[in-house]
Amino acid sequence: MRLVKAVLAASIGAAIALSSSVQAKQITIGFSQIGAESEWRTANTNDVKRAAKENGINLKFSDAQQKQENQIKAIRTFIAQKVDLIGFVPIVATGWDNILREAKRAKIPVLIMDRDLTVSDPSLYVAKIGTDMYTEGRKVFDWLDEYVTKNNIKPRNGGDKINIVILEGTVGASATTGRGNGFNDAMNDSDNKDKYKILASQTGDFTRQKGQEVMESFLKSNRNDIDVLFAMNDDMALGAIQAIEAAGLKPSKDIIIVSVDGVKGIFQAMMDGKANATVECNPLQGDLFFKTAQKILKGESVPKSVFVEEGVYTSDNAAEVFPTRQY
Ligand code: AHR
């Protein structure tokens, strides 16, 4: 009798396990990444893939090789494959309305990661997980102004303005406009705004190679006038450091260098005395992304924008923080 009861209990248990595994169908998510333009982007991609695995998601990952048209194609493929949810990083802010209408007609929710987008109808996507690019730009200026004031920095050419050059990111990307607007607004709001002048500003497309090339051309025309480099990402700053050294100048001393991201490469440069500060842009967004996707698919409401946490690191604390950096 005891044996019969045990067999009965085991088979009921197995039946319950079977029925709940049938109910918990694995979620399939199509994700379109921009490409691999920077150390930051590689860390972001690795985190998305890791988090998908750990959250039990069937991930269809597509790399757009820096082209919006490839992202649109990938999203159309995800729609045809009837994935449960579509995620993507908008390489530029505009040009998404039509494809997002197709996703809406197919009743597939869309969750944005990292960069912002501008659409005519906000219901075309459910929410965005990412970073606050505008605040990052403000933090860059605030750090710079404090540093210049505290260290009583004077223009190298003996003039009356601290001359700044800017390496911008991809044209039309929210990371570029957000950081640029944040920086300019913080400068205009500052009591010290008349101390500074933006000497030149040009895109380096968020890559090390172009950062180096554009810095070379800045130095060709203004070698003795540049006091500050604001690079909208660390990779461009790292490329620019090579150009500055090749021009016979000392990065971080002759030219103050502040950038955005907080990747290990810039920490190394700060520890080597070649860069001054980085404003963090946190690429580790995978867990938040997939947890939010799961909530959306369960019909729970989620905030329209969720930002990850970010800090500011300088050459003074780089060595202490470096061992804790994950990317
Ligand atoms: O969108 C985030 C930006 O894109 C990062 O600052 C940059 O490194 C990346 O390529």
Automatic annotation (TrEMBL):
> Is Signal included in the keywords of this UniProt record?
yes
Keywords of the record, alphabetical order, are: Signal
User: What span is annotated as the signal peptide, if there is one?
Assistant: 1-24
| Regions crossing the membrane | none
Please report the stretch or stretches of sequence annotated as the Periplasmic binding protein domain: 29-300
Coarse class of the primary localization is other
Is Signal one of the keywords?
yes
Location(s) in or outside the cell: Cell envelope
A family per Pfam = Peripla_BP_4
The family database entries (Gene3D superfamilies) matched by this protein are listed as:
3.40.50.2300
Q: Which family does it belong to?
A: Belongs to the bacterial solute-binding protein 2 family.
Mind telling me what this protein is named? Answer: ABC transporter substrate-binding protein
